[in-house]
Give the backbone structure.
Amino acid sequence: MKKRSIVISVVFAVATSVAAFAIELPADVTDIPSSYATVSNGKVKFASDCRAYPSSVFNAVLESYGLELTAENAAAVPSTYAKVKDGTVSFNTTAMAYSPMKYHKILTAYGLELTPEGAATIEGTKNYCQVLNGKIVFGKSAMAYSGSKWNQILSAYTLPVTPVVVVEVDCIDSDGDTVCDEIDVCPGTPKGVEVDERGCWVLEQTYLFDFDKAELKPEFMPLLDHVARIVNDNPKMNLQIEGHTDSIGTEEYNQKLSERRADAIKKALVSTYKIEPMRLKSKGFGETKPIASNTTAEGRAKNRRVELTPLW
């Protein structure tokens, strides 16, 4: 019997979060304001004209991403954006532009956070922010952005998740991934792999793919360096690449998207890293195997994933 770390979920304040998920607009979203984006045949087209939005419309946009402004957090936003009366949040109906500094306060009130790494990806977005000596500096002049620019800005923010407490317990951990066998959903994980709380090898789809796309983002290809190294270090191991989605959109659409994304990773491992094709298998599961609730943005972010299953 070996002493291993077992993770126990507990609720803390957002400020103590140790992990986060990038947000993205769900596939086949239908309730988004047309001034921000339109949807046709499952494809989202973001507005290209810069405009100021009434806070009632901007709130509807953020709700389309699965976000919510609570009465408790509304106190942190400008009074011209939202007010609270008798526990109910009310928004204005007059178009108003804010400075990026104030936009950031609004977005953090919805539970989002922006790291210097995330901010660096949008430094060229019309004076929104820049990173100086590791710190984020926001613009102070009122700015209006198009729907496409707002989507880029929002994609740089992350959604905090419930952190965990690590408790040392006596248990058997056969594969050495720090998750006890009795709760390890994915036994046989190779050495050197970082697993989630279930003991599974997971790649976060949001960082690998653009919204509604199955082409790997070039800037995140280095994430596959580690995958290729693990495969090469274990010549007797084959790998099944499994694509998963959340439940937003049709089952047929999500199934095909998960298949395309899993296949894209397989092709990259073969073409770029010269892994033998016979050692890799790609498979899409669509929305059929959720690991969290699809009723929350945090849960949907967890369900949008690529799992790597070793085959010994």
